[in-house]
Amino acid sequence: MTGQPTALITGAGGQDGTLLVAELARRGWRTVAVYGPGTTAPEPPRPESVSLTCDLSDIPAAGQLIDEYAPTHVFHLAAISSVAASWADPVGTAHLNGVLSVALADRCLRQPRPPRFVNASSGEIFAAARRTPQDESTPLAPNSPYGAAKAFAHSMVVVFRARGLWASNAILYNHESPCRPTTFVTRKITSGVAAIAAGSAQRLTLGNLDARRDWGWAPDYVEAMIRIAEHDTPDDFVLATGTARSVRDFVHEAFAAVGITDWRHLVDTSEQFTRPADATALIGDSTHARRTLRWSPTMSFPEIVRAMVRHDLDLIGAGHHDTGAGTNHDDKQEAAL
Asked: Which intervals hold domain NAD(P)-binding (predicted)?
């Protein structure tokens, strides 16, 4: 492929989208960054790039973006990103996380020059799997509306690949950064710990401290998605560290980052923040990505937690208030794993 590549990125306002737009622009790509309705699209990172808003639940409007901008690559990241939110709106989740992916892949296939299509799949498609760790050959076994919709989209990407579309699934296990909103349990923890350390909060309320996840560093996973897009052959790739840590481990590392070793009296648990069904052994085997893409994680679990806590401490010091911290750091919405 010659000339300047053009990437259409759905979900550009999320953690991965934000990082991906910036990284592709740094590499000289033209980006068409698609943000959700009700948001203000930022200035594009390059003069030839585009930032726009679109209600992607409007399937025809979403498809027209591909017609209009004729991208060489489509990174489909837009989704209801919270498993908890998917239980509250399973129909909307099926539409946005499942049907939209199919519609975009179909529109790509119908282009005169079909773009490469990279779909953000999820480790949640294996949430009820009977074997650990999971790899690309693990049978799909979701246990939530989020996971089921992602499993449908994942399967349809495989179907479209068989039809001739260059289409790959990036099977993303949990990956974190300061770009996470506080509706995610990791950022809820780091912002809450920072608020406690700063004296602006007294306690942190969480759900199941024993829930375990394979947590990585988000910029590493964005790098992997770019490598998938540039690889000669479309395929499916598990992206994970191969090690699971508990929410309790995350809390411990976060308090350690501010010099608090005895934190148990500062943390409450509530069934309000417990999922209807939880995956207890989501660990990814990324051997295929490591061998084929020459990809590997660059940051350890403690380094990830410390980086996020430092960011939230800096926000408090700079007078920002996006942590939502008060007397009790207790969001009314279940924090998403």
From this structure: 8-308
Measured between alpha carbons, how far is 94 from 169 in angstroms, rounded to an integer? 18
Tens digit of each residue's pLDDT (9 = 90 or more) over 189-224: 999 999 999 999 999 999 999 999 999 999 999 999
Distance CA 294, CA 228 (A): 11
Q: Tell me the HSE value of 298 on the side-chain side, using a 13 A CA sphere.
A: 9
Listed in order, the ranges of the chain carrying CATH 3.40.50.720 are 6-175+216-239
Cα distances (angstroms) measured from residue 91 to each of 146, 157, 305: 10, 21, 34
| Topology given in CATH for the domain delimited by 180-214+244-282+300-329 | UDP-galactose 4-epimerase; domain 1 (3.90.25)
Contact (CB, 8 A) for 80 and 86: yes
Strand partners, 144: none
Please list the residue range(s) of the chain that carry CATH number 3.90.25.10: 180-214+244-282+300-329
Which DSSP category does 325 fall into?
Answer: -
pLDDT in tens, 63-113: 999 999 999 999 999 999 888 889 999 999 999 999 999 999 999 999 999
Dihedral sign from CA coordinates of 169, 174, 180, 184 = positive
Cis peptide before 133 (omega within 30 of 0): yes
Strands 212-213 and 245-246: antiparallel
The yes or no reply on domain 6-175+216-239 and CATH 3.40.50.170 is no
CA 159 to chain CA centroid, nearest Å: 23
Measured CA to CA, the distance from residue 28 to residue 269 in angstroms comes to: 47
pTM of the predicted model as reported, rounded to 2 decimal places: 0.92
Place of tokens 């608090």: 260
Distance of CA 41 to the CA centre of its chain: 19
